[in-house]
Amino acid sequence: MPIRVAQTQRKEVKFVLGSGCFYGGDLVHLIDGGKRSISKLKVGDPIWSLNLDGNGIIEDEIVLMMHNEANKSALFYTFTTSDCNEVSLTDSHNIPVYCWNKNKIEIILASKVTINDRLIMYGKKVEIKNISINIRQGFYSPLTVTGYLFVNNISTSVFSDNYKVSSSTVQFVFTPIRIYYHLMRWIYGNEYIPFAHIQQGLHPIPAFYKKNIKHNFDF
C-alpha cells in the first residue's frame, strides 16, 4: 500500500517507524461512564475492555504507561468501520480481528490487517470500510490488567510485535508486574503508584522485556 503524505509547504517530515502504540487522541471508556483520551490515561484508571471474542465486557485497569511520546510523530494505520467507528495504531501494534477465510479470531499486526478482515466490537464483528495511512503526533502504549484496550468502541491488544512473541505470551510474561501492582496497592492503598512514571520515552520495564523476552521464550 503506497504511503502519501500531503504537504502544503516543502519541508522535512520526521516520524517514527516500527513502534507499537496507540494514537493519543483516541478515547477509552471509563467504568464511571465517561471517556478519556489515551494521552490522558493515568495509572489506576478503571476502564472497560472486551474479551477476545467481543461478547463480554470486562472491568479493567491501567497498570503502567509503557511508552509515552507526546512530542513525536508516528505513522498510523487508521481503520474505519462500516458504522463509522475508527481506531489508529502504529504498524507493529497488535489487534484482534475476525478472519473470515479462516472463520476465527486472530491477533495480528496493524500493518497486516486487510479490508476483508472484521474488527471486534461489543457483541459483533464489524466490516472495515477504509484503511488509511497517516502521520500523527503523539503515541502511547498503556498496559492493562487484561492485555486488551477498548478504544473508540473497538477492541485492541495493548501489545506489539516488538516483543517478537505472541500477545498471549507477553501477557503471561507480564504476570509478575500485574501481581506486584495489585499487591502494592492492596498494602498502600489505591492512590499508591507502584512504578516510576516516565514523562517521555520507553519505560524501563517494557524496555527490559523487549530485550530479553525473545531469548527466554523462543519456542
Quickly describe the structure.
Residues 19-123 form the Hint domain. With 219 residues, this protein is an alpha+beta fold.
List keywords for this structure.
219 residues; alpha+beta; Endonuclease - Pi-scei, Chain A, domain 1; two-stranded antiparallel ribbon; 13 strands; globular
Describe this structure in words.
The chain has a domain at 22-73 and 135-216: Beta Complex (Endonuclease - Pi-scei, Chain A, domain 1), CATH 2.170.16. The protein starts with 21 loop residues before the first strand and ends with a helix. The chain has helices at residues 167-173, 175-188, 204-216; strands at 22-23, 27-29, 35-37, 46-50, 57-81, 86-90, 94-99, 104-109, 118-121, 124-144, 148-151, 154-157, 201-202. The radius of gyration is 17 Å and the shape is globular. The chain contains 3 helices and 13 strands. Strand 11 (148-151) and strand 12 (154-157) form a beta hairpin. Strands 1, 4, 5, 6, 7, 8, 9, 10 and 13 form a 9-stranded antiparallel beta sheet that branches. Strands 2-3 form a two-stranded antiparallel ribbon. It has a two-stranded antiparallel sheet with strand order 11-12. The protein is α+β, with helices and mostly antiparallel strands.
Report low-confidence residues grouped into runs of 5 or more.
1-13
Measured by DSSP, the beta-strand proportion falls in 35-45%
Q: State the separation between the terminal residues, measured CA to CA.
A: 32 Å
Rounded mean pLDDT score: 87
Name given to the CATH architecture of the domain at 22-73 and 135-216: Beta Complex
Helicity, as a percent range = 10-25%
**Number of helical segments?**
3
Organism: Didymodactylos carnosus
Pfam families: Hint
Domain Hint: 19-123
InterPro entries: Hedgehog_Hint, Hedgehog_Signaling, Hint_dom_N, Hint_dom_sf
